[in-house]
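Quick illustration, no need to memorize.
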Amino acid sequence: MSKQEDAVKSYKDGESNLPPICLFNFVLLSLTLLFVTALQILLRVVPGNNKRIASTIQKIGMIQFRAGNLEGASLHLQKAVEIYRKDGEELIESDIISCLFVIGNIHNVLNQKDKAIGVWAEALESSNELGSKGHGEIHRTLGSLLSAGA
C-alpha cells in the first residue's frame, strides 16, 4: 500500500492526525491525475482541438487554481481558451468567458493589475456579445471590477 493510500485509509478509519488541508491537497492531486488520465484517453479517441478536450483542460486548470498552482492554472486555462476558439461550436463563448475570468483573477493575485484588467475587459466584451446566454454573475462581477479599476 502506498503512503497516499495508507493516509486515506487511516483517515477513513478515524486514525489520522493529518490536518484537513493535507487531505484537501491530496484530493486535488487525485483529481488532477484523474483528469490528466481522461485527457490522455480523449486525445487518443477523439480528434484534436474539440470542446471535450478543452473542457478537460479547463477542469485541470481550475483544479490547479484551487490548489494554488497559479502558473499551471493559467497555462491550462489559456490552452483551453485557444482550443475553444478553434472549435467554433455555439455557446463555447461562455466557457471562454469563465476561463478568461479566472486568468484575470490569477493576474490580479500576482499583482499584475494591467494584465488582469486587459483579460477581464476581453471577457466582458465576450459576455456582452452573448447577452442573456452568458454567465450573469460573472458579467456583473466583471463590470464591477472594471468600473472600480480592479
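The mean pLDDT is 77.
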